[in-house]
Amino acid sequence: MKFSINRQAFVKALNDVARAISSRTTIPILTNIKLVLGEDELVLTGSNADISIESRIPASDTNAKLVIDTPGGITLPATFFINIVKHLPADDLQIELDGMRALITSGSASFNINGQDIHNYPQLPEMEDAQSLKVSAAQLIELIAQTKISASTQESRPILTGIHLQLAGQSVKAVTTDSHRLSQRIVTLTGTDDQVNANVIIPAKSFNELQPLLEGKDRVEIKLSANQAVFDLGNTVFYSRLLEGNYPETDRLIPTESTTEMTIDAGVLLAAIDRASLLSHESRNNVVQLVLSEGKAELSGTSQEVGQVKEELPAKTVVGEDLDISFNPDYVRDALRVLHGKTVELKFTTNLRPFIVIPEGETDNRQLQLITPVRTF
Questions:
Q1: Mean pLDDT across the chain, nearest whole number?
Q2: Do 106 and 90 touch, CB atoms closer than 8 A?
Q3: For the chain, which domains are there?
Q4: Burial of 63 (0-12, 13-18, 19+ CB in 10 A)
Q5: Which residues form the DNA polymerase III beta sliding clamp N-terminal domain (predicted)?
């Protein structure tokens, strides 16, 4: 294998596939990055067994300036190799193999590093009997951002670490819950005639790595099989395993009526919660209190060690029964952030039942955050 390439273009592709590489793996070769040079393209692959990312650099890409001399392939230690390429002195670099050693040269610098045979590297999954649809990358980014916040990080219930996607025709429903809060987003796909019916659970960790790759893209093709999801972004292809099992029935958790409601600007409430959190984070239980009474709203936070903060909220409306409720401020803050500064409605039933945060005027739960209050007595 022998080729030369523009260093910046190479670094971008390396950074993309590096998202899938972990230093903590039971398969040692997966700490390597795989390079395969064909007659007309260079293919880079990174994997951690749960996700795999493949990036293609075609010789026709004028920015990459890929010049292919001799096809071939090797796997190289990812962290070490990427750091070398980032620190090379010239705009271009050349890589040439001598057996299982790679000679990397750029300007006056040269490195020799040991690699391993590509045949020892696991093959990417075969997508058999896959359903396929093309979606807007912007819609997919929104779907991920508004739901991943409620995915569990506890491996004791693996199924809750995923985002549950239900696809029916051109409708996609995404739900996450960690049993303390729940996020739901329903979108109707735009710019596509694809009709897919599927019910899958994709690890939220996978979406964390996929989301940056979607930035600036127009369309993405999604392929779903029995145990894999593939996102084709053109020259970059992202593979993720699916979680096995049945996701909990979440519709029954969403209240259908309310006894107390508050309408307020999301940014105003977010800022007030930030201030209350300054004290609640110093307390062992990290709780703030919201009191709704006689058309007014008051937020407070207390720390026995530090003191107390109280603030009257400039709510647009407060209607219904009086209410005194406590909650984890971080959960509400996350919910408000993904609603992008809109005016929001908070709907309550009792001080011990979950309440919902929705954009003002939302009637069919297409965009919903649910939070379980904290008992303080």
A1: 94
A2: yes
A3: 2-120 (3.10.150.10), 131-250 (3.10.150.10), 254-371 (3.70.10.10)
A4: exposed
A5: 1-125
